[in-house]
Amino acid sequence: MTAPRPADEPLLRIERLSVRFFVRTSFFATRPIAAVSDVDLDIATGETVALVGESGSGKTTLGRATVHLVPISSGRIVFEGTDIGALDDRELRAFRQRAQVIFQDPFSSLSPYMRVGEIVEEPLVIHGPRSRAERSARVLAALEQVKLSPAAEFAETYPHTLSGGQRQRVSIARAMVLGPDYLVADEPVSMIDASSRAEILYLLKDLQAQRRLTFLYITHDLASARHFADRIAVMYAGRIVELAPAGQLVGEACHPYTKALLAAVPEPDPGNRLRQRAVVGGEPPDAGALPAGCAFHPRCPVAIAGTCERIIPPLVELGSGHQVACHLYPVGGGDGEGSVGSADGSATGDPWGDGLAEADSMTSSAARMPGSSDSG
Questions:
Q1: Positions of E strands within 57-138
Q2: Residue of 161, 204, 199 whose CA lies nearest to 186
Q3: What is the pTM of this model?
Q4: From 186-190, 295-299, 370-374, the region with the lowest mean pLDDT
């Protein structure tokens, strides 16, 4: 795990990863649930990759698989050149010190029976150091790092006395206390009030700059993904359907599902109160009974009859790191130019084209969100 790796090798490499769960349908029978299917993704040291998509698209399962919290069915997860699926208990323990998770819900992920200092100290009790004085010093340093000051006072409090933003800072301190290189941030701001979200994201950015952390950022919020992540991967029914640099994906989305997500971002304009917005119809498919071909084709307004319902589209490189899995962009299609790929959707009659400008307006508003206190 500590051997030097080539400079161009990513910190984390996901290769053809699939995760299947089995649910009981009767006393003797089970059926498979395809949570993640054939995902390939590289994450460089110091990079933030955001996973976005509807609930049930496989984002959290993929994130947990990268830190060996759920078993994988096929494929590999390679961390610094080492397949984490092949690690023994001792090696896995060492890996745990370098890969941590910030969980979504700070209200349920923190024990109400432990003081804040004990919560942050727990990873150190498991992994060391053995000296209690050294552990205490590292706990106080971690609390100071996440702006919980005075740290000594916060260390003696219980989680129920803290606000949602303060609890999430405790979760971040617990993840950071071991000095990890890789963090899975599973919707770290979805359970806290809007006034605290920007502060938490700015805090994570500061920590990344100080420690050159690598993030897998899981979120429903395209506005925060646009400004927090370097690249955005859009997931649907367990597969990555589009991957691009964050600004490019928001400004030049290609996949119809990505365009639908962007069009759904609300625009802060009172004039929209009486304007009906175009939204994608239907519901995400049952992961235990996915449709044949492209899983999005039953909801897609530009599906190609005879193709989309039969063939799963591969992830195609369009240029400049922009990849899309859609039959509108066939393999060997070059840079993806053509009427079907126009960013504003006008050439295809795409009902979600206007949403791109609205989404970019929304993300700009998010970037200007002023910080506020977590004390409320």
A1: 74-79, 82-83, 99-102
A2: 204
A3: 0.85
A4: 370-374
CA distance 365 to 190: 18
Note the pLDDT tens digit of each residue in 317-352: 998 999 999 999 987 654 443 333 333 333 344 555
CB of 12 within 8 A of CB of 44? Answer: no
**35-38 LR contacts (CB < 8 Å, sep 24+):** 35/61, 35/238, 35/287, 36/61, 36/62, 36/65, 36/238, 36/239, 37/237, 37/238, 37/239, 38/75, 38/239
Closest CA to 103 of 84, 79, 86, 119: 119
- Residue 247 inside a domain? The answer is yes
Cα gap 178→183, rounded to integer Å: 11
Asked if the structure places residue 374 within a domain, the reply is: no
Q: What share of the chain is helix, strand, coil (3-state, %, to 5)?
A: 35, 20, 45
Domain assignment of residue 328, yes or no: yes
* Parent domain of 304: 235-267+290-366
Total number of domains in the chain: 2
Claim to verify: residue 172 and residue 247 sit in the same structural domain: no
- Residue 163 and residue 43 in one domain: yes
DSSP symbols for 116-174:
HHHHHHHHHHHH----HHHHHHHHHHHHHHTT-SSHHHHHTS-GGGS-HHHHHHHHHHH
143 in the same domain as 65 = yes
What does the radius of gyration of the chain's CA atoms come to, in whole angstroms? Answer: 22
Q: Is 324 domain-assigned?
A: yes
**Residues comprising the chain, all counted:** 376
3-state secondary structure of 355: helix
Measured distance CA(57)–CA(286) in Å, rounded: 10
